[in-house]
Every structure is written in C-alpha cells, then in structure tokens.
Write a structure and sequence with these properties.
Radius of gyration of chain B: 14 Å
Helix content of chain B: 25-40%
Oligomer: heterodimer
Number of domains of chain B: 1
CATH superfamily of chain A: Response regulator
Strand content of chain A: 15-25%
Number of domains of chain A: 1
Number of strands of chain B: 5
Largest sheet of chain B: 5 strands, parallel
Shape of chain B: globular
Largest interface: A-B, 34 and 33 residues
Structural class of chain A: alpha/beta
Strand order of the largest sheet of chain B: 2-1-3-4-5
Distance between the termini of chain B: 21 Å
Order of helices and strands of chain B: EHEHEHEHEH
Number of helices of chain A: 5
CATH topology of chain B: Rossmann fold
Number of helices of chain B: 5
CATH architecture of chain A: 3-Layer(aba) Sandwich
CATH architecture of chain B: 3-Layer(aba) Sandwich
Strand content of chain B: 15-25%
Helix content of chain A: 25-40%
Radius of gyration of chain A: 14 Å
Largest sheet of chain A: 5 strands, parallel
CATH superfamily of chain B: Response regulator
Chain lengths: 149, 149
C-alpha cells in the first residue's frame, strides 16, 4: 500500500520481556507504528470491543497474537475475532514460541492469517519483526478502516 | 519451511501473460517451487478436490488467487476453499489488480489469508513475487500436508 498513514497494531502478549523486544524491534526497523499491548486474552477482547477503559480504543490494522496467554488462550481469542462480524477481517498473525504442528494447523483452522514462530535468538527475532512488518505493513493491502456498505 | 521438500503452489490466474511472469519470477526467487496453474475457478476447484484428470494433484502449500476469473469467480473459489474443512488451512493469498476497498474488505471477510495488489510494472511485480517467497515460503509456518485432526 502506498498510503503513509501510521498503522495501528495490537500486540497480545503476556510476557513483558517479549513486549519490550517487540517494541524495540519495530523501533529498530524504523517502522512508525501505533503499537498497543494487551497482556492477556480478556484484555485483548475488551480492547477490540471497546469495553470499559478501552471505550476509545482504535481499531487495529493488524493483530499480533501469542498463543499461550493467561485467562483466555490465544486460540480462543482467535476464534472470537474470526467469528465477530466487525473484527473478522482484521489480519491476525499468530506469533508463538510453539513449533507444534497441532498448534499451527489449529491456528489456520481458526482462520489465523499467518503463523510465525518466535525465535529464541535476539537477532533472529529482530529479523522476523522486520520481515513481518515489511510484508504486512508495506506490501499487503489491509482492510479499510470503515466501509460504508 | 524445510528446503528439502519442494513447495507446491497453485496459481489461479486466467491471463497467460501474468502466468508466464509469475512462473519466471518464482523461478528466479526459488528453485524448489513447483508451480501449478489453474486457468479458471472451476479448474482450481477440480485441482483442489482432485476431480477428473486431477486425481493425483498434490495438495498445495499455498494458493495464489486472482479475483476476476472466468467460469467461477475468485471470490466464489475463496469461499469454497474456506468453507471446506480440509482445504481451509491452506493459506490463500489474493493477487489482483483491484485496489477497490470493497474487494479488500470482502476478501478478508471470506477469510483470505492476505490481499496483495498486482503491480503493473514488471520490476515491481518481480519484487512482489520475491516478497511472497521471502515471507510466505520462508518465514511463515505453513501447515504440513494433511490436517492432523
């Protein structure tokens, strides 16, 4: 997409270290993104549904979703998003430590837009975030903010 | 992706020129790709469902789908893929000249994994194919052949 509007991302991640690394990786990649963080599945849904303190939360252009989350697991959050008429079109990227085929297949069954495994090494993580943001934020056409139809 | 195994792609595209360009661009990007072509929507579904002459058709790791197709429209192909329990886990990338927001929104609603605009300029098209290879066939965890459950 050629538009230069800053993209809004929702990162659903409970590990503060991973949150910090993701924020730094976007910064290092020179990607200006409006990155919001939900630290568990329930908070993610509240953000997306504008509940409580999230009454004015923006609609994310892209969701980065960890699978192992407290309160409500990532697969459940994914199922919720992809069954919600107002949310299902938001590309949702699973970003998980799990390499298990069952987790990968289940995520695609639940309509994850793509599945990425979080590498353990810092450099590899940086490269992954760069490649993910290059593809999703620069190449892919993302759904329009609001469609009048 | 494990580089030992060739990656199977199904390109659903009715324009011979675009097919040729895509084949050439993938050949440059990745030697391990087996690119199959379906020239219309009905042929794509026959390939995926192994009907008639397609009885030995491989299951693609990734589908590249044009929207405007003869016989069966790309939107209908997408809907059928994503309604099929076995086929729905195959990542399906829309590759189209349409930049219409309605097409983008509708494709994501029909569970396209990603929506890409086909650039007209040759170099930009080659760069796009390279980015599909670098992201979808290198970074992303694709489901292995058959769904496990």
């Amino acid at each position: 997409m050629s538009e230069q509007r800053i993209k809004t991302l929702l990162l659903v991640e409970d590990n503060p270290g991973d949150v910090r690394l993701t924020q730094e990786a976007f910064r290092n990649a020179n990607k200006s993104v409006d990155l919001h963080v939900a630290s568990d599945g329930v908070e993610a849904i509240a953000f997306l549904k504008h509940e409580g303190k999230y009454a004015n939360a923006p609609r994310p252009d892209l969701i980065l979703l960890d699978l192992n989350l407290p309160k409500m697991g990532g697969h459940q959050v994914l199922a919720f998003i992809k069954n919600d008429h107002g949310l299902k079109m938001i590309p949702t990227v699973v970003l998980s430590c799990s390499d298990a085929e069952a987790d990968i297949v289940k995520s695609y069954q639940l309509q994850a837009n793509c599945y990425l495994t979080k590498p353990g090494l810092l450099d590899a993580f940086q490269t992954l975030v760069e490649s993910m943001s290059d593809f999703w934020l620069s190449r892919a056409a993302l759904p329009p903010e609001r469609l009048t139809t | 992706m494990n580089p030992i195994f060739p990656t199977t792609l199904l390109l659903v595209e009715d324009s011979p020129g675009d097919v040729r360009l895509t084949q050439e661009a993938f050949r440059d990007a990745n030697q391990a790709i087996r690119l199959h072509v379906a020239w219309d929507g009905a042929e794509a579904m026959a390939f995926l469902n192994r009907l008639g002459a397609n009885i030995n058709a491989p299951r693609p790791d990734l589908i590249l789908l044009d929207l405007n197709l003869p016989k069966m429209d790309g939107r209908e192909v997408l809907a059928q893929i994503k309604e099929d329990d076995s086929l729905r886990t195959i990542p399906t990338v829309i590759l189209t000249t349409s930049k219409a927001e309605a097409d983008i929104d509708k494709s994501y609603r029909l569970r396209a994994n990603c929506y890409l605009n086909k650039p007209v300029e040759l170099e930009a098209f080659e760069a796009l194919v390279k980015s599909i290879n670098d992201f979808w066939l290198t970074r992303v965890k694709l489901p292995q052949q058959r769904p496990v459950g």
